[in-house]
Amino acid sequence: SQKIEQNSEALNIQEGKTATLTCNYTNYSPAYLQWYRQDPGRGPVFLLLIRENEKEKRKERLKVTFDTTLKQSLFHITASQPADSATYLCALAHGSSNTGKLIFGQGTTLQVKP
Amino acid sequence: GAGVSQSPSNKVTEKGKDVELRCDPISGHTALYWYRQSLGQGLEFLIYFQGNSAPDKSGLPSDRFSAERTGGSVSTLTIQRTQQEDSAVYLCASSLAGSGGPPGELFFGEGSRLTVL
After folding, report:
1. What confidence tens digit (pLDDT) does each residue in A4-42 have?
2. A73, B39, B91, B115: which has the fewest Cβ within 10 Å?
């Protein structure tokens, strides 16, 4: 069956360290993958999109990698800050044409302690 | 408006009643999505509209759920004969891209929190 798996356990790290979140998928062949941030009681907010032919994408302190062989994306936040504390969701398009419908993982909650 | 607008923000209803949730997408966005999020859970896909194409209803959990999008803009999600397990936050999102190409960035509303007593 098709699955998108993110670590359901919260990730607790110290301020200033690098946070690394994982997104694994099975039985999908996505042409790209997206990452979103969600704060409590709010809708998700888009962060980054990475395509299958891109190994790595960066935006400020954020870095995303995409390994289509391992069927995995890693999301890194360097020099983490308490304000980075939130739930982070990965999402990919479902279907052979990779159009339209985005399916989300369960999300991983990150807690950055000062 | 500047963003995706959803109403009501909170709805409390009794089991067996029908409810309607409304979504106003960003003007010009051709794609519109409905997701459901139960407490502490991820986003569950419900339905997807893209332009004038037939909607993808593959995520609707039962025939009590339906949605329409009028004039390619406003969408209404209707839940008939609500059950307690329907209690969740219902999120709407819109996007510019999607027709024949990859979905672009999704812009989400703040959600409608439904509580069924």
Report:
1. 999 878 999 999 999 999 999 988 888 789 999 999 999
2. B39
- CB distance B43–A89 less than 8 Å? yes
Distance (Å, rounded) from C-alpha B64 to C-alpha B44?
16
Higher pLDDT, B35 or B98: B35
Strand A108-113 and strand A86-93: the pairing is antiparallel
Q: Calculate how close chain A gets to B99, using CA atoms only, in Å.
A: 7
- Chain B CB contacts of A102 below 8 Å: 33, 45, 103, 106
Q: How do residues B31-77 score in pLDDT, each as one tens digit?
A: 999 999 998 788 999 999 988 888 999 999 999 999 999 887 999 99
Structure tokens at B64: 């009590």
For chain A, what is the radius of gyration of the CA atoms?
14
Interface test with A, best of B106, B107, B112, B113 (most A CBs within 10 A): B106
- Residue B17 backbone dihedrals phi, psi, to 5 degrees: -80, 160
Residue A21 contacts residue A6 (beta carbons within 8 Å): yes
Q: Taking residues A108-112, what's their average pLDDT?
A: 96
The owner of tokens 């946070």 is A19
Q: What pLDDT sits at residue B101?
A: 60
pLDDT, averaged across chain B: 91
Looking at the partner chain, which of B45, B107, B110 has a beta carbon nearest the beta carbon of A101? B45
Evaluate whether A37 touches A48 at the Cβ level (below 8 Å).
Answer: no
